[in-house]
Specification:
single chain; 231 residues; alpha/beta; five-stranded mixed β-sheet
């Protein structure tokens, strides 16, 4: 058995994978069983009663986590002139126009979030086949196509998380690090679940949130009592 397999087996000792836990208890268990040498990410996975292939059941949006994600996102901005200067001043890691597009087209994508001013979309639009599959294509609905690039950069750097339902109706995201306090993780989870609840598509009938689980990068996955995270 590999070191990773042994660590995971040890992490699951004493944990019933079929039992549902109150949110606070699950976070306490996850923090107590994190044993990796790095600061593990705490991840949430939500199984929703929706089919994102249907137009009235599509789910996509953003949420600001009150305590951030603990991850330093690299942000690229497509902008010119004053907007480019504003992006740089706000802390963008990469700023450019045609030059940045050429790098992306060549396969150099060393960023986690992509923002563009509206006038740059003619250039960015040609990168759809490269950025789209990676979930990096700027989108007005997500606030990543905007004239206010400084605000968008600060939001991305400050803990804004994008979410999107996958084919099976699963939404997942990192909502912090195991080094965060239990209170901070609880508040981040509630903020994320609240955003998902408020974004319920109009075409969804019946129970919207079916299952929710939390895990850390190297730790066990724990089911949550949905009632304990209702907002």
């Amino acid at each position: 058995m590999t070191k990773t397999g042994k660590r995971l087996k040890q992490a699951y000792q004493g944990v019933d994978p079929t039992a549902a836990h109150p949110l606070e208890e699950a976070i306490e268990l996850i923090k107590g069983r994190a044993s990796a040498k790095f600061d593990e990410t705490v991840e949430i996975a939500m199984n929703l009663n929706l089919d994102p292939r249907k137009p009235d059941q599509n789910l996509r949006g953003t949420v600001m986590l009150p305590h951030g994600t603990g991850k330093n996102l690299r942000v690229a901005v497509f902008a010119r002139g004053d907007r480019a200067k504003e992006a740089e001043a706000a802390g963008a890691d990469l700023v450019g126009a045609e030059d940045l597009a050429e790098k992306v087209q060549a396969g150099t994508i060393d960023f986690d979030r992509c923002i563009a001013t509206p006038d740059m979309m003619a250039i960015v639009g040609r990168l759809g086949k490269v950025l789209g599959p990676r979930g990096l294509m700027p989108n007005p609905k997500l606030g990543t196509v905007t004239a206010n690039v400084a605000e968008a950069v600060k939001a991305a750097k400050g803990g804004q998380v994008e979410f999107r339902a996958e084919k099976a109706g699963i939404v997942h995201a990192g909502i912090g690090k195991v080094s965060f306090s239990e209170e901070a993780l609880v508040e981040n989870v509630r903020a994320f679940v609240g955003a998902i609840s408020r974004s319920k598509p109009t075409g969804v009938k019946g129970t919207y949130i079916k299952k929710v689980s939390l895990s850390s990068t190297m730790g066990p996955g724990l089911k949550l009592e949905v009632s304990s995270i209702a907002v």
